[in-house]
Write a structure and sequence with these properties.
single chain; 201 residues; 11 helices; mainly alpha
């Protein structure tokens, strides 16, 4: 995995501290971990987002979309799931579909990581349940976050295209497959009309 720096949890090796501080040092690795898919297509490391930056974008989009487009959704639940959805990557890394890791193995690695981080916290079981809800898509809110996770990737791809990264259509193919709701499909259609590399432009 390509990272900006080593996992910060190493700084606490052999030291005792509050569970909250330990959990923060663990999740801070998401700030060090590049989104590997962008690097795979040649994006320069100095321009590549971290997993934490992606998660921040997903959480804000989820808030805005739940409030404006999906009044039937529990917006608080949506945002809580969004904040937790990438937590497993702190230890498992950002495993992409191009890596030789099965879906089952990826899920196991990430679940082990999430449990390791959250088990020490007073409401860890509740947070783990929200993460599981996301992974298995067992609620409308979880399925919405899964779609927004991909939509955010499309938004970021468009920005990278404007910044000179070339045609990133392969990422949009993934977004198209993930989106289920008419509302999000309409947002994607608007986004694609803005792309600087769209066919015919």
């Amino acid at each position: 995995m390509h990272t900006k720096a080593a996992a910060p949890i190493a700084f606490l090796q052999g030291r005792r501290t509050l569970p909250l501080i330990e959990a923060y040092f663990e999740l801070n690795h998401l700030k060090q971990l590049f989104r590997q898919g962008w690097l795979r297509v040649g994006l320069a490391r100095e321009r590549c987002e971290s997993v934490a930056e992606h998660s921040f974008g997903v959480a804000l989009l989820c808030l805005f979309l739940a409030d404006s487009y999906f009044p039937e959704a529990d917006a608080t639940r949506v945002v809580r799931i969004a904040l937790l959805h990438d937590l497993g990557e702190a230890y498992a890394g950002d495993i992409t579909p191009h890596d030789p890791v099965s879906r089952e193995e990826k899920l196991k690695r990430e679940r082990d990581a999430v449990e390791r981080i959250l088990a020490k916290l007073p409401r860890g079981a509740e947070y783990l349940a929200l993460w599981e809800e996301y992974e298995h898509g067992t609620s409308f809110e979880a399925r919405l976050v899964r779609q927004v996770d991909r939509l955010e990737m499309g938004l970021q791809a468009t920005i990278y295209e404007y910044q000179g990264a070339g045609d990133l259509s392969q990422f949009f193919a993934s977004v198209h497959k993930a989106l289920e709701t008419p509302e999000l499909k309409a947002v994607l259609a608007e986004l694609e009309a803005l792309r600087p590399t769209r066919p015919g432009v």
